[in-house]
Each structure stands twice: as structure tokens, then as C-alpha cells.
Write the C-alpha cells for this entry.
Amino acid sequence: MKRIDITECHYRLLNIAKAFDEICTKHNIPYYMLGGTMLGAIRHKGFIPWDDDMDFGVPMNYYSELIDLLEEELPDKFKCCTYKNHPCVLYPFIKIQDIETCIDDPRSNVNLKEQLGVNIDVFPLFDCDVNDVELSSIFRLIRLQTIFNVGSTSNNFFKMIFKRILGMMCFNKDMFINRIVYKCNHLADGNYLGNILGRWKRKEIIPKEWYGLNMRYQFEDITLCGIKDFDKYLSHMYGDYMKIPSREEQSVHCENIYIR
């Protein structure tokens, strides 16, 4: 298999994003760039140079419809992956992958040729109250799910033992996911919209009015939808977001990406 560099990764990510944007625009499904993708749009007018993924959010009331549309209308070289149809999707959100590629994820027990390819994450955004006590329960379940799924490949002795205990108690991936989905769908309505399944958990729950609607920003050679009050959002997430982090702070999700 041929290894690809970050430039090729960005090219393929952007093509996935274009297809995603076209489907959402055609069917009036609102979406937003999130996290480093929103930051890249503002600070770099495109990709953060070392970033190797893209994050988007779609309000939960559009999410099921979106999955159906992606499965029907995505070009053949892309695939809508969920925990129901791909072993490497460990949480209840969408990954749209380029099926011509594969990522060597050292945390996974899956054969390299069956690994996910270059992909974008599309998270559900939940209507909630930032002080809802159920949020802490959801975050604990996500943490347990993470330990259960990657514990066997971890160098941490206690994580490996804990995974074995969970396995002996007959826990499995679907049990965790079903419980997480149930709790997310029973959150109390509030004045916030949150990417509860994202990396930063409670920090990604922000006031609804920050989102706006159909605000488009330059991203490389196209435009993509993003958060209206981006300054409030990015300051909340990153502090001085226009400052380039040191080389040590530049996190990369995956280093080895190949053409299948």
C-alpha cells in the first residue's frame, strides 16, 4: 500500500466536505464547522496545516434524515459509516470516509485493510441545559466506552484489567452506545446546543444564539457553513485562538494513511 502525505489527506478531506455540503444544502439541513475546522476557517482560511480531520455538527432533529440522505446520495468513493455498519466506529455519530484510503490506527484491533479511511466526523448537536445532571452520567458512559474499546491495546495496566472485568460482566460496544443514545435523547430542553460526543465534552455546549444559520466562510477553495459568533465560540474553546501553538502542542490524530 502507498502511504500518502498531509497534502493528499487534505485534498481527500476537502472532497468529502464538498459532497457533504452539497447534500446538506440541497435538502436544507443546517450544519456547522466545529472545533479545529472552524478555527482553521478563521485563522488559516482552510486547514490548520498539521490537522488531519474535519469536524461538523448537525442538530439532532435532522440527524436521522441526514444519515438516510448520505447513504442514498454520497458518491460511490465515499461511505457513511456508523457504529451499526463499521467496526471502527465506536460512538454514536457519523464518519464519512474515503473508501480508497485506510488509516493505521494503533489503538484498533481491526486489520489494516478494514480500518476506516480518511474521514470527516459529523456530530449530532443536542438541545440541552448546560447544568443538566444527566450530562455527567453521559460523559462517564463515554469514558467507560473508550476504556472498553481501546483498553486491550493500551499500555496502561489498569485499563487492560478494567476492560477484562467489563468483558466478564458481558458488557459490549452496543450496550454502551444504546445507553449513551438513550440518555442523550432524554436530556431536558434548554438554551444550549451541544456536541456532547466531542472531545471536549461540556466545553462544547454553547448558547444556541451563537450558531446562527447559513453563515458561510472561506475554506480553501470553497465555502462551508460555520458558527455565526465565531469569536465567542473560538475564544471559549481555545482562548487566544489566533496564536499559533508551539510544535509540541500541535496534535495529530493519525500519522500513517495509505491508499488501499
About this structure: DSSP finds seven helices and twelve strands in the chain. The two ends are 6 Å apart (CA to CA). Residues 6-26 form the longest helix (21 residues). Helices lie at 6-26, 35-43, 63-73, 134-150, 157-168, 173-184, 230-238.
